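Hi everyone, sorry if this is the wrong subforum. Our group has a chain we'd like a structural model of before ordering constructs, and none of us has done structure prediction before. Sequence below.
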Amino acid sequence: MKAFRGTLVALLVLLAMLGAWYYTRPPEQAVPVAKKDKKKEEGRALFQFEKANLVKVEVKRPEGQIVLAERDDGWWIEGENLRASRSMVNRVKHQLHDLVARATVVEDVGQDALYGLGAQAIRVTLSFRDGSTLSFDAGDPNPSGVSFYIRPVGTDSVFTVKKSAVDYYSLSLAEFRERRFATFDAKDVDQLDATLPEGKRLKFQRNGETSWDMLEPETFAANDSEIRSLLGRVSAMKAIQFVGENLQDLSPYGLDQPRATISIRYSNGDAPMTLLLGKPTGEKDGEYPLAYAKLADEPHVYAVRDGLLEDYGQPPAHFRLTRFARMDENTVQEISATFDTTGRDADLNGTVKVTMAADQWLWDDGVPVPGSTPRRLAGRACGVESEEFVADAAEDAKYGFDRPLVKIYVRDSAGAYRNLMVGKPAPAGKRMVPPPPGQPGNPAEESYDRYYARVAEFPEVYVIDASLIEVVKDLMREHRRKADEDAEKAGRREKINQELGSSGGQ
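Answer:
Right subforum, don't worry. Here is the predicted structure as tokens:
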């Protein structure tokens, strides 16, 4: 009993102590909405729209307003007559079209300045093709610096979003300008004409989808890839600095008498574009010197990297056509190869024809050709590339084209054709060959075979290596094996028929 009474007394004392604590404990602290709602609101989609439907971006800042608007010829900065940066427009579309909140910070509180959402807030309004709009205020970065505060207009909720979604709205006007000021589609270019230092000229005229002729300072077939490189240097030119607009005196920039003038004419009827390159600025962008430049029909002067003339200043021979067959291997429908090895190799002598039907190469008897040899030959013939230019006009007997070693007839799906001829051996080429893998030693010089070649439809003579001939040999050998197999099968059938005929006679 005494033990029980002791336990009961202890229990009563404990209950009394708990009651005293309950009534004397400090009041419970209020939990901010941010803490209570953070998990619930994290990942909330704030905006959703189709990127292609955006037509205007208005950025109202304490120091002024920037408006980017879409026109028929691209995006422009309204009121400034400046092209808007395509990368900036794409950034707005990419960052906002499916913007998700990292967290809700506060709801229904009036502490705007605490989050940079007071008088210093940036109001961004997006307009869409259907006439609808979407607006929000962009504030300050949060204490961690990795998120920014924003508040959708029409709500009292403040959210944090990723820094990259809104940090660029406070950038200078220059960052909203298009820095690539001379862009165009190279496919639309019909003529390229350049006046260069020391009175030099370059002029090229397109005569096909991938075919160009040099007209000045010499006349010959030009290399499509080299012309595209020249055009690409202009189209990719970027303003490192925006120097000024509507400048009355261009002489301080060397643009009254430019060092170089590059004119680009289009086949679609658009007005030509003329680029003026002035004198060096005396400054650098990293390791690259800068020079002044402008478009002839626009008022803006820029500072650009001064490397353009390195490409345009190459000697004329640099632009000469090297892939001289001027055919697209992907459109080839027929190949006929003739190997004239009279007195040399009878097994390879003769003509082999293959045709393309239903994405399958066929022998002349309609049997599919196994392997990749016809495809390789189409690639080699259409993409044959010269190692050396020889002459503007062929002397057939001199180079062996009166009796060519190899003749290849190629016809494409549009009916265009080429007759490629490989003539006499040319002077051997030299190349350095590294030692076999795992073996010590220095690269050694070796000789390799080369041949004169031309296309019958054009007069120029070139030197090529022997790789085209080797593929023709492969086709000849494969056709010879097929012919031998066909003859063997025919012989077996003949023997069987003879035996069957003999048996029937008995």
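For your construct planning: The mean pLDDT is 87. The first strand starts at residue 54 and ends at 61.
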